[in-house]
Write a structure and sequence with these properties.
Layout: H1 2-14, H2 19-24, H3 42-83, H4 86-104, H5 111-119, H6 124-145, E1 148-161, E2 165-177, E3 185-198, E4 201-209
Antiparallel strand pairs: 1-2, 2-3, 3-4
Keywords: Membrane, Transmembrane, Transmembrane helix
Protein name: Twin-arginine translocation pathway signal
Region (Disordered): 1-40
Length: 210
């Protein structure tokens, strides 16, 4: 830039034809340098590199925010809806019906198998209660008097449904035979079945006649 100014000044001096011209040209002529529109050379590359860096940072931030929003929607909206939707209700309903039949159906010839099957539908304190009840009450009576019971579900409906618990109202018929009553007795009843989510399975945690 300085060389250009000196060159322009020299040309002005060389073109002087008279003293008046010399006096007029006594003051050096300079040309204001016009800054370039874009920085050249290394500076331009530095600025371009910085621009690309910030573009990448903005994109990464946007992706992180989008991922966070998606995760929040899944945890706070989609997942609870899924846990209390129609599929979850059907699963709890079937678990209550299957568990009720398993609890109230047994035969003296297959007591151990029947009790073992029933236990797979139970959890918590109710499982402990069932173990004690079958050992102390049901097994001696069923063995001595050949008690056999068969339960059949008449109807059932979900009364409460939460992500980790549910209550199902079950209506059932039960037929019982024994050596004292070979013709059998027939009864109808309603039971409020409490369920707890254990892993992916609904298990019976309470069983209360209504």
């Amino acid at each position: 830039m300085k060389n250009d100014e000196e060159l322009l000044t020299a040309e002005a001096v060389d073109t002087v034809d008279s003293p008046d011209d010399a006096e007029a040209s006594a003051e050096p002529t300079t040309v204001a340098a016009t800054p370039p529109d874009r920085p050249a050379g290394p500076l331009r590359r530095v600025l371009q590199g910085a621009a690309r860096f910030w573009v990448v940072i903005v994109l990464i931030t946007a992706l992180a925010v989008t991922g966070g929003v998606t995760a929040w929607l899944y945890v706070n909206q989609y997942r609870p809806d899924q846990a209390t939707g129609s599929a979850a209700a059907d699963s709890a309903l079937n678990a209550a019906k299957d568990g009720t039949v398993a609890l109230l159906s047994y035969s003296p010839e297959t007591l151990n198998e029947d009790f073992t099957n029933a236990k797979t539908h139970l959890t918590g304190d109710f499982l402990n209660y069932y173990n004690q009840f079958t050992e102390q009450i049901v097994t001696p009576a069923a063995t001595k008097k050949s008690v056999k019971t068969t339960a059949a579900i008449v109807n059932a409906a979900v009364a409460e449904l939460h992500p980790e618990s549910a209550v199902v109202l079950v209506f059932l018929n039960q037929t019982t035979t024994s050596t004292e009553n070979p013709d059998g007795s027939f009864s109808t009843s309603a039971v409020k079945v409490g369920l707890t989510k254990v892993g992916d399975a609904w298990l019976i945690s309470s069983f209360d006649p209504v």
